[in-house]
Amino acid sequence: MYDELIDARNRQLRDEFVNSIKDRICALSSSYHGGDDCEFFREHAMGSFNICFFVQFFQCPKSSRDSDAVPDGDRWVVRVPLGPRLAMEPWEKVESEVTTMRLVKSRTTIPIPEVYFYSTACEPGPYGFASFMIMEYVPGKNLRDLGFKLNKRVEALPPIREKILVQVANIYADLTRLEFPAIGRLVPGDGDEPKIGRMPISLCMNQQELEVGGTLAMVREHAGGSTGITSTDAYVSLLLDIAQDLSEKSTAIYSNEKEAKRGLYFLDQFTRHVRGKWTADTVNSDLFVLMHGDMQNPANLLFDDYMNLLAVLYWEWAQTVPRKLFLPPIWLLGRPEHSLMLFYDDYIEKPAHFCLVLDEVEKQNYGEVSSLSRDWRLGPGRRRSCQQSLAVPNPN
């Protein structure tokens, strides 16, 4: 649960920043397109951590076109990080995200917008901001725009639903084969080879750092001064310590003393279980897989009207994780994570079917089935394993 006062303050800072740069976006875009004139072709899109401006260029110079001409050339997306909403430096976010996107684009079949230009400057330039990305515009729609009722579940006719599942399975099958020797975020390495060069920071960690502080210091402590974490046990211990810290510091989690005592009790019981049996059942590996970081939000997938996947967006929270924390999309069920105990039988059914789809995709694409779907299967003795894995990154 977010602290509403802190969140409101950060939103105000965000809005002030956006208003200060909007008039300069076309000038920036033009400077990367040979000085060609451009205009906004749709309203800007305000996200939690970025603002996207949509520009289109004129093919003819101003001197040889009619005064009422409309843009008819290239369409770009100019994406600017919202510094007030980030616990990390905006340039770090851009560098890791661009590195991740280019790796995924070069080594997988996952559709990703082309990154044309980007800046990882630390100080504002002539346009009033330092870091940005200029990307290909993908004219797709997310599932909600296409009419799916995600607050209930992803409902569709069986052939359409299967088409969605196959394409999502392709994403997971490809990502699970991008392995690295530590848990963290990608940065450019030698040549075209990226490396783990920054500590992990998730969406939840970002919010907690903004609310109560100290979260990133805890990450550095568990990383032992290195840029990544090399043990599943150490990473899980970090997540549990962060949850405990939030419970002790935040004023937004519990509404009264009784609720606080109850919440702290169950958090303690969950922590004991994870540090004991759950961790004991987890295989420590020398390799960790790349995770999108916000795949639980179906708005990050763009489709055309025929349900062909056009793009997977917003890789800013991408990082490597232990395989046991590389989890299926909960939006297949259409319920929030905290409600899984109430609808657990329903939850079992959907990922179980998704696992069958994933197996077929892996056989077709790679000639073999990885351990991923086996890790997700919820057979006898494992009915709660996947649910517990979902809770570990954010047990509060």
UniProtKB/TrEMBL annotation:
It comes from the Eukaryota. Signal peptide: none annotated. Gene3D superfamilies: Phosphorylase Kinase, domain 1. InterPro entries: AGP_Transferase (IPR051678), Aminoglycoside_PTrfase (IPR002575), Kinase-like_dom_sf (IPR011009). Residues 74-313 form the Aminoglycoside phosphotransferase domain. Pfam families: APH (PF01636). SUPFAM superfamilies: Protein kinase-like (PK-like). This is Aminoglycoside phosphotransferase domain-containing protein. It comes from Apodospora peruviana.
